[in-house]
Amino acid sequence: MSINIVTLVGRVGTDPDIKYFESGSVKCRLTLAVNRRTRNNDKPDWFTLELWDKTAEVAGNYVRKGSLIGVKGSLKFDTWSDRQTGVNRSTPVIRVDQLELLGSKQDRDGGGGDFAPENF
């Protein structure tokens, strides 16, 4: 038996990068900052997320830089050969299967305003 499940909650670091393919598929890539608690302060770990099809469209329509989201998916590695050196390279990517929009509607719309839970 093997398990490859990743669950993360954090803030989006970039606006979604959406690509549409002739096949009808939709791909979205974005970054996610997740705070890792240390003794002195919180430092973010950065993850690259890859979303496909309906989930990608939802991200493209509702997620913006700074949005609070939760994701569930699996870890994969994108591999390529460096054009200059020919060395094989790889980078970890989270292939998202499930996306949860956790912030308020104002967060998703990028709206400011005076409403914040700490104000009440």
UniProtKB/TrEMBL annotation:
<dbReference type="InterPro" id="IPR000424">
    <property type="entry name" value="Primosome_PriB/ssb"/>
</dbReference>
<dbReference type="GO" id="GO:0003677">
    <property type="term" value="F:DNA binding"/>
</dbReference>
<comment type="subunit">
    <text>Homotetramer.</text>
</comment>
<protein>
    <recommendedName>
        <fullName>Single-stranded DNA-binding protein</fullName>
    </recommendedName>
</protein>
<dbReference type="InterPro" id="IPR011344">
    <property type="entry name" value="ssDNA-bd"/>
</dbReference>
<dbReference type="Pfam" id="PF00436">
    <property type="entry name" value="SSB"/>
</dbReference>
<dbReference type="InterPro" id="IPR012340">
    <property type="entry name" value="NA-bd_OB-fold"/>
</dbReference>
<keyword id="KW-0238">DNA-binding</keyword>
